[in-house]
Amino acid sequence: MINYIWMVTLFPLIGVVLNGLAGVKFPRKVTGAIGSLAILGSFLTACLIFAEVLRLPAAQRTSEVVLFTWIACGSLLVNIGFLVDPLSLVMLLTVSGVSFIIHIYSMGYMAEDEGFRRYFTYLNLFVFFMLILVSANSFLLMFVGWEGVGLCSYLLIGFWYQRRAPADAGKKAFVVNRIGDYGFLLAMMLIFVTFKTLDFSTVFAAAPHTLESGGLAVTLITLLLFLGACGKSAQIPLYVWLPDAMEGPTPVSALIHAATMVTAGVYMVVRCSVLYSLAPLSMDVVAIIGCLTAIYAASIGLMQNDIKRVLAYSTISQLGYMFLACGVGAFSAGIFHLVTHAFFKALLFLGAGSVMHGMAGELDMRKMGALKSKMPWTYWTFLIGTLALAGIFPFAGFFSKDEILWDVLQKSTVLWAGGAIGAFMTAFYMFRAVFMTFHGESRVDEQVHVHESPRVMLIPLGVLALLSVAGGFIGLPLIEGGNRLKEFLVPVIALAGHGAAAQHGAHEAGFEAVMMVVSLGVALAGIALAWLMYIKNPAVPEKLSERLSGLYRLIYNKYFVDEACAAVIVEPVKNGSLFLWRACDNKVIDGAVNGSGAVMLRASRILQRVQTGMVQGYALGFVGGVIAVLYIVFAM
Amino acid sequence: MGIEAGTVMLGIIGPEVVLVVAALGLMVADIIIKDERERQFLVWIGVAGILGSLAVSASLWGREVAYGFYGMVVVDNFSTFFTLLFLVAGGLTLLMSHRYVQERKLSPGEYYTLTLFATCGMVLMGKSTDLIMIFLGLEVLSVSLYVLVGYVRGSDKGVEASLKYFLLGAFSSGFLLYGIALLYGATGSTRLAEIGAAIAQKGLLGEPMLLAGMGLLLTGFGFKIAMVPFHMWAPDVYEGAPSPITGFMSVGVKAAAFAALLRVFAGSLPGLGIQWKEVLWLGSILTMTLGNVTALMQTNIKRMLAYSSIAHAGYILIGVVAGGETGTTAVLYYLLVYTLMNLGAFAVVVAIEQKDEKRLELLDYAGMGTRHPALGAAMAVFMFSLAGIPPLSGFMGKFYIFSAAVKEGYLGLTIIGVLNSLVSVYYYLRVTVMMFMKEPEAEITPVLFHPSLVVVLIIALFFTLQMGLFPSTYLHIARESIKIFL
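Predict the joint structure of the above. Result:
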């Protein structure tokens, strides 16, 4: 079965071909069914492979499946091949599983949209590239997936390209991502120069004895890779595109900009854990950037009124946690949080989509309130997602976040404190969102007829809610052998050798239990504060914003980062481009091009006249040719 | 040498035998079947002949080199490669002609018979090892085509083209024959192997008679591949001939002449390389440049494709001049690629053309792409491939030709070649622009798709893409084919 790994990626591609090329006349039901079944096919194949791998002993769980040679050029040899190991399997299962649920949901959410077919084609194409990304066996093939998901992200953010904002947001996402991709490319070239290959297995096997630990080469490679990860996973300073990406359809935000694509950076760092553990400096950078992003994005989330933007900043913040985990060497904790986050964040986005659906597209939480009774299903599932994200026992997010914080504490108290502050803010803004949307007094416009969503949308919510409750049990702390995910990932992570995660083998169960209570307390405090401000005394937020108007404005406007970027980067580049366009391009280059074109056309007109149509003339030319040939032959 | 003196060895000319039998069968069936509608099925006899011949020649691949008919013909991978290429070209031409012949009420029997004979002539040219045999193959091919070019008897252009082709063809055959005579005079043989041996043994390299003979031979082949300045017939003949035949000529005749050219010059006269390479070097530059530049102003699609095919002969000549393993391999690969993409383009032309030579102007293509997206997309692929844009096979073909030239030190030639293909983008893209971005002036009568034509389009499209994406198999075949020259 393992040898059929390529089928996992084949199914979505079939979906793309069927819907994209042949599907003009398909009815919507067929289009949606094809799209969803394609992903189901991938998911089931991945499950079968997973079952088979589980039966193998831990040491034999890594294998490579090479399909054919893709590029053979000098010493560069790249195959189209797949790497089947615990890490890629976890990713394959998460990606295809969550994608399938979101495809189902989309059938209801997008039912009325004109671009239904285009939507499913893009979505399937996205899944195809995402699966390539997580299962590739070389940096280059991974890069193909990496660029592919970037393209699909662009296409789907700008899905409603007729409107200005989505089109702009798509462009912004694409351009910002290019910066990261540039880092990835440079890293890849460095890797090739150093190792003469781009295959994961060869590079990672050779790394410990080829590279000097902490040396320049490995530090540079890992930092450049991290730049790529920052772009894709929206970390400081390349996070600016993700909030704007919310202009896309909500299921897209759930799938691409919460559950899967944005986690590609985390996956890549974990995949390269061998390299990172050789570069302590890079590890510190990853941890610090992750921690800063976690706090920073959470602080912006405190003041957003747009429900999707709250979730977007929350995503950035949670990605920060994952990088924080990777940075302290707790790679498996990062992947654990990636998985649980995929469940509950997809759930929250789909819940927000359900609210939008019921309120005719309204996103502003100030115009909501008291939706609890009108949309009970959405409310309860959203609440579960919120509890999971806030890190309340026994929901999934509790276990994964707690594991991260525990691992961070082993390394640095400062970083732990940062993580804890972030967790506090997370609990606060998420419950603020719940209270503003579902509780309190209704501020809904009278014309809006609020209604619960159709079943095709509610069932996916239910499934994701179940996963958000149960998902944490794949990695139970404290109990010996309880952390099954970590154990499963050992063959991949262990290559990283002396990572911090491997170190604290001596389980200080008592201390860890205390820390669990602490982090739970932090989350509960955040919830309590939200309750005080938005349920008990709804006047407090306004008073507070008046008292601290400077700080309020700063955070409300997202620290003016977009404005600063526009002034420092965008405007100068634009002016420079305008100059080059008008002075160089229009005059010099176009002049040369048009000039040579005109010369050619004139020459053509002259040469045309030689062709008189008179056969005598042709024969004469022939004889001339014969003489010329004989002349050359004898002259040489 | 392994020449089987006295034996006939029918197996060696198996593909030709099948073709001729099919052609004779066609003639007989043409007489027996009276009903006009039933006679349209005659094409399938031709196609069956081609398929049978394909099977026979495919079985000859990879065999040991075998001579037959007193060393007049040979079966080696080189000849098998070209046999397959000609058969593919001939088969696609038959399919392309199916509706063309039907619609214009042309007599189908002779048309298909002559196409088969022309194919047979090409096959013979590809496997001749004797100058007389090459000449015979050439004449079999030419005489069939003289008739086919003027097959639409009511068309003034067609008759004019036929006459011009005949006059100039006879003229050039005279030169070719004279060249053969001079070579015979200088070396005492018409066998390629013996000519080569005689030059080496007797030290004839500077012999004037030999040089003159070789020069005249070059002009004869130059005529067939439409090398400047022996190209003048091509635009007029290509424009006047029935469109499927134009397609056939532009790929088949050209490839046959290149096959013979390679066998004679690269195979037997490498010692005179300085002289003939000089001629072909200059010829290549003139051919590319004149072909491309003149194509810019053409308004008739067939005329434009005629100039385009002249230009492509120029590119291929670069490979011949470069020579060596890479150059010759590139030539064979390019001929294969060119055959499929150019026939594809002609299939689109045939699809769009209407009776009485209507809808052959570029302006008639306006709006075709929006009206028939699949047809437009196919044409776009062929045009992009002819222009040499990756990842299509036309790009890979040019890439291998140019890289061979660079490797052999012909940098100037390469630069001129690249600049030329830049110029060519203009007129190729103009077709696509017309099809997709221009509104038609009047309502378009829809294109009627005939199943045979659709088959041609699909085959050509598939290989144009496939040979570009996965060139290694074809390069391997080409490399195997030219082993005899190394």
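The mean pLDDT of chain A is 89.
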